Amino acid sequence: MTPITEVAGRRLSLSNLEKVLYPADGFTKGELLHYYATVEAALLPHLRDRPASFLRYPDGPDGQRFFSKNVPPGTPEWVRTAEVPHTEGPARQVVVQDLPTLMWAANLVTEFHTPQWRAENPGVADRLVLDLDPGAPATVVECCRVALLLRERLAADGLTAYAKTSGSKGLHLLVALEPTPSEQVTAYAKELAVEAERDRPESVVHRMTRSLRPGKVFVDFSQNAAAKTTATPYTLRAGREPTVSAPLTWEEVEACVQPEGLVVRAGDVPERLDRLGELLAPVVDGSAAAALPRT
What we know:
alpha+beta, DNA primase, PRIM domain, four-stranded antiparallel sheet, 8 helices, NHEJ_LigD, ligase activity, LigD_pol_dom, ATP-dependent DNA ligase
């Protein structure tokens, strides 16, 4: 029988709690739900008011995965949705505003992805993201070196960068912005990526072409496009173990010499929040927001 629980006054059906989702350490669906409930105070501000896309993996990372933007069948009527423009026409997406919605979505076994803009202002970004993706044999260690270069470059333009793990192989850099059209943010981010490749051609590439990427860090600027999304801070990722896209201190980035040193698992996050606080708070509350330089 499917357990029924009440979350903040909403009745939810939670299923298959004993199912192992992450085979490397036996992490179950029940543990996934517990993780999201534990970190909701940090996670929800990154989801709130942004149309969510779900990467679903109901049978774990070795099973079927599918990316969903449209509102899933059976969505409760109390879940907020928003109309979002797409190239093929407007569609409705879920907006995760509260703990009941978070737990309902997590029960679908969900990796959360969000755009750089809010539902009430589509295509107008309030953050910039750079996705640093290493091409083997490069690792996150090389990503850290590139992240430090980009932090300095952004600071020269009056922008403050914040780092987080991708939850996979690389790093994400986030910058809080005053509201700016996504196409302008994308153009500026591309300039940064091209400049980084010009300055460090031996270690940086700005083009996605696979043949160019071995041993280098791909600086992906494209996730600033209005139609693109990025793994939300604190989301679990679909992999062999329950890794998280977790905020980092710059001291951790500077000190990174082994790839394993920047792997953050679900069990690590509550302690990190207690010890470090919400490292991305200035991005969430807009206190670090700045304007893009004039070109």
